[in-house]
């Protein structure tokens, strides 16, 4: 990974204007597509497959009059006035006439209708002061025509004008219960705070502005892409806001990590272009890994099997992916444009270096001590001086902070989450005050009655049954549709949608399904806006456990891959769980208990957004892994390069704490900016993330983690051998890159060697084998004698298909094992019969397997054809710079077979070079070689 990013960083630095143009063109294309084809993100929150959702879908075909959404107009007369008399009666009927012709309106019900419609869904309040008008509208609340919503508001204003001044009139209901999120000036404050933090961290306006500009371009690409995608996929209104919040936060942080490392290296005297490449390789590796953890966690929301949540997770993951891509491509390009101006003036050399100096050994560049470094040195000394005391103090404090999470209650947002002066909020409160909270949470029972011979009598019987259920306030409507094939029963609960008794009522009604089906032959389903919300919350709560297991398991595996350790992943995962617990606790304290509600502009308290926990867990997991990687990777880097365990903790902490602190402060600022004036759906997530990031970065990662590592000592970096063999390695510290840089001009005795090795140790059939040093010149073919037990393992290693246990090996300019995948991609393995097919892709290296020729000699025609194919291949690849050469690098030919058979096949001018023999490794070397995870010990052995 680090090697590939090193090459990418160098290329982007050279092709800086091309890279910038590509991103700007992409932004323009996606923005054009979004403006011309995008339909907007306004899909409803639904879960297909639940009883309530399936019933609503069925009603849209059988009983469309009650299947869509609805609006409510409430009229409250002053004390002593009669809302059933004029002017109230005439004004309400006139308003009904205004509402009836609006697009999508299927019916307007008032207390003054006739027949079954009269007072069916609407009535005078028990206190005799209020009346309700209900407007039934086809389609979902997010698909209602703007002309309809504007017409309802205008009709309400006209109704208010016709009534006495002291009468109250408001409109709301299900259709207006959720607001479309939008940006507010408060979000800009987060960006300003981020800019201030960047100035303090990087010390330069140019350096501080760079992460912001790059992040904004990335966010622009993400959001434009999301709105373009709405032409083909339905997205909820929360989706682009979450993508914006995450994309902005991680985009700034990821660029900051690379820019900070680049500044460090420039101060130490590294050349601009070399520093850009190394910063992209080291910090960029950590950025890629951190981004992958966030992406996997967000895509992992699909574990819940809820379509809108899966779409939300994929969209947010796409925004993070764009942030990663732009960080490792556009950042090197812009850094190249800035040159030495990326440093504060006081740190710039008076004369820029003429070349790109690089330490010969490729080791990390040592940073200069600053005042901030001294502060963080005191911090880490305090955290690790008495590690047990630190660990206990942190665990107790975070445990207390997580206690409120035990009372977490979930629900979908309703009108109570809107601003106090919002008409829908006013309507909701007036309805609850005069009619009872249950009128804001009506339920519907529906089922097919096509087999009934007395539909009206059947609905009356069912109504009487429902009225006997505890928790039912009243049953105002029980009627069949016009075709008498579907019946509905409207049920008013005693309490509101968020009350536990309403959830119990839904469950109680469903528990009578079999009884009523046996007695009346009707299969009734409970549905309605309230029932849908209860089903969504229940399924999301059920999904928390499998998702939590997925996230915890993922963190253990990923961190074990990165740190080649058992203890580091365990303590990192436990720390993440503590951060999540405190974040949940803060959400409960603010949104359920009302703490700081005025300061944070929380309009009402009650159950929190039902999909908040699973989103917060996914996002916070990724961010927690960010800080774990950037902090602990630097400690392991120090440990791998020779530091003892305690010194590595201190040096690694000092080297990374400043940038981790800045990154966390930026995250907190961006998230917190969405809290005061944010949309209710985003506000609760933003607060949880802000608290979670604060706890995870400063208390868990920067206090608890150093203390735990200090307590563990060398054991922190150990892993069982069987597990090390099972898990792939992910080099985020740039360890492999350091080796590549150190061996860039190796071997000194033959700089142009096509194959070179030194003290190479390979895995044999029963033990490790040491191969004598190799040197293969251009124009030579390496012949491996099959009788040597090291020949087959060596051939596999030389083609990128085997594993180097220890030592140094370079093939076709690629250092192994770091570039094994690149070598494998450009190599081929074939016997003479399949030679021409293997050479069609013009590989850079070929292993010609002649082991079968020992038993069955090759025919003259086969030998001639093989010689011809090999000659053509070498000419095409530019063998030895001969005539017709198309490449400056000649190909590499390795023959696994007897020397006589090999010489018979080699084309003219190609010399057979016999590989030197091998010997068994010593017991000590074999023991070290069998533990590939202990890179610290292995480097010493080398």
TrEMBL record:
It comes from the Bacteria. It is a multi-pass membrane protein. Residues 351-367 have a biased composition (Low complexity). Its main location: membrane. It is found in: Cell membrane. Keywords: Cell membrane, Membrane, Transmembrane, Transmembrane helix. Residues 928-942 have a biased composition (Basic and acidic residues). Residues 190-337 form the SSD domain. Residues 346-367, 915-942 are annotated as: Disordered. The chain crosses the membrane at residues 188-206, 213-233, 239-259, 280-303, 309-338, 388-408, 543-563, 575-596, 608-632, 653-678, 684-712. This is MMPL family transporter.
């Amino acid at each position: 990974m680090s090697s590939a990013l090193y090459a990418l960083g160098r290329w982007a630095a050279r092709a800086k204007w091309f890279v910038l143009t590509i991103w700007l063109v992409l932004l323009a294309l996606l923005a054009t597509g979004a403006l011309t084809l995008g339909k907007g993100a306004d899909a409803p929150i639904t879960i297909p497959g639940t009883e309530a959702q399936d019933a609503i879908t069925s009603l849209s075909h059988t009983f469309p009059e009650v299947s869509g959404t609805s609006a409510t107009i409430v009229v409250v007369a002053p004390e002593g006035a009669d809302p059933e008399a004029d002017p109230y009666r005439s004004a309400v009927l006139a308003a009904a006439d205004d509402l009836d012709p609006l697009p999508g309106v299927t019916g307007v019900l008032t207390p003054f209708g006739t027949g079954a419609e009269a007072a069916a869904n609407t009535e005078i309040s028990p206190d005799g002061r209020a009346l309700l008008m209900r407007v039934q509208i086809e389609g979902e609340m997010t698909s209602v025509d703007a002309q309809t919503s504007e017409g309802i508001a205008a009709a309400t204003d006209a109704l208010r004008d016709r009534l006495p001044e002291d009468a109250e009139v408001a409109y709301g209901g299900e259709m207006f219960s959720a607001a479309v999120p939008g940006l507010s000036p408060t979000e800009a404050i987060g960006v300003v705070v981020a800019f201030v933090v960047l100035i303090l961290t990087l010390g330069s306006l140019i350096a501080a502005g760079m992460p912001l500009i790059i992040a904004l371009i990335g966010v622009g690409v993400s959001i434009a892409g999301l709105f373009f995608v709405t032409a083909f996929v339905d997205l909820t209104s929360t989706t682009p806001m979450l993508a914006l919040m995450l994309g902005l936060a991680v985009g700034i942080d990821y660029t900051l990590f690379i820019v900070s490392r680049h500044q460090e290296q420039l101060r130490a005297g590294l050349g601009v272009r070399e520093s850009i490449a190394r910063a992209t390789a080291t910090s960029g590796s950590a950025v890629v890994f951190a981004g992958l953890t966030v992406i996997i966690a967000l895509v992992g929301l699909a574990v819940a099997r809820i379509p809108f949540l899966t779409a939300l997770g994929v969209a947010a993951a796409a925004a993070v992916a764009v942030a990663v891509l732009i960080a490792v491509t556009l950042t090197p390009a812009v850094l190249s444009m800035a040159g030495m101006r990326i440093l504060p003036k006081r740190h710039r050399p008076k004369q820029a270096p003429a070349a790109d100096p690089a330490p010969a050994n490729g080791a990390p560049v040592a940073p200069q001590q600053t005042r901030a470094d001294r502060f963080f040195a005191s911090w880490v000394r305090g955290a690790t001086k008495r590690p047990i005391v630190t660990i206990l103090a942190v665990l107790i404090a975070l445990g207390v902070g997580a206690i409120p999470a035990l009372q977490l209650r979930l629900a979908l947002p309703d009108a109570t989450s809107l601003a106090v002066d919002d008409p829908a909020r006013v309507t909701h409160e007036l309805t609850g005050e005069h009619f009872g909270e249950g009128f804001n949470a009506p339920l519907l029972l529906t089922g097919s009655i096509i087999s009934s011979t007395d539909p009206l009598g059947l609905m009356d019987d069912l109504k009487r049954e429902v009225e006997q259920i505890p928790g039912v306030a009243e049953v105002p409507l029980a009627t069949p549709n016009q075709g008498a094939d579907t019946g509905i029963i409207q049920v008013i609960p005693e309490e509101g949608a968020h009350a536990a008794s309403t959830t119990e009522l839904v469950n109680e009604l469903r528990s009578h399904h079999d009884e009523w089906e046996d007695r009346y032959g009707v299969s009734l389903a409970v549905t309605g806006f309230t029932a849908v919300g209860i089903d969504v919350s229940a399924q999301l709560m059920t999904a928390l456990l499998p998702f939590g297991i997925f996230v915890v398991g993922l963190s253990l595996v990923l961190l074990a891959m990165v740190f080649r350790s058992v203890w580091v992943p365990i303590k990192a995962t436990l720390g993440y769980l503590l951060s999540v617990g405190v974040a949940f606790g803060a959400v409960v304290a603010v949104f359920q208990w009302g703490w700081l509600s005025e300061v944070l502009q929380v309009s009402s308290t009650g159950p929190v957004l039902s999909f908040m926990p699973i989103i917060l867990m996914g996002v916070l997991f990724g961010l927690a892994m960010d800080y774990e990687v950037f902090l602990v990777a630097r400690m392991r880097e120090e440990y791998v390069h020779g530091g003892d365990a305690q010194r590595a903790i201190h040096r690694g902490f000092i080297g990374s704490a400043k940038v981790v602190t800045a990154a966390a402060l930026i995250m907190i600022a961006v998230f917190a900016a969405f809290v005061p004036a944010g949309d209710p759906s985003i506000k609760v997530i933003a607060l949880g993330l802000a608290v979670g990031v604060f706890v995870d970065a400063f208390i868990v990662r920067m206090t608890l983690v150093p203390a735990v590592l200090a307590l563990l000592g060398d054991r922190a970096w150990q892993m069982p051998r069987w597990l090390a063999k099972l898990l792939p390695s992910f080099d985020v510290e740039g360890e492999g890159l350091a080796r590549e840089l150190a061996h860039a001009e190796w071997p000194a005795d033959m700089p142009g060697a096509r194959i070179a090795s030194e003290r190479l140790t390979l895995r044999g059939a029963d033990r490790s084998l040491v191969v004598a040093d190799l040197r293969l010149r251009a124009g030579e073919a390496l012949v491996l004698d099959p009788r040597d037990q090291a020949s087959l393992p060596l051939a596999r290693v030389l083609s990128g298909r085997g594993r180097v246990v220890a030592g140094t090996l370079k093939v076709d300019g690629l250092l192994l094992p770091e570039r094994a995948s690149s070598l494998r991609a450009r190599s081929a393995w074939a016997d003479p019969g399949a030679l021409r097919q293997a050479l069609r892709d013009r590989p850079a290296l070929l292993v010609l397997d002649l082991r079968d020729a020992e038993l069955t000699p090759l025919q003259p025609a086969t030998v001639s054809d093989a010689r011809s194919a090999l000659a053509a291949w070498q000419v095409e690849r530019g063998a030895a710079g001969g005539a017709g050469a198309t490449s400056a690098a000649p190909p590499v030919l390795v023959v696994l077979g007897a020397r006589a058979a090999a010489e018979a096949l080699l084309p003219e001018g190609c010399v057979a070079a016999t590989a030197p023999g091998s010997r068994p490794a010593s017991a000590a070397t074999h023991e070290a070689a069998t533990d590939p995870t202990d890179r610290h010990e292995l480097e010493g052995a080398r």
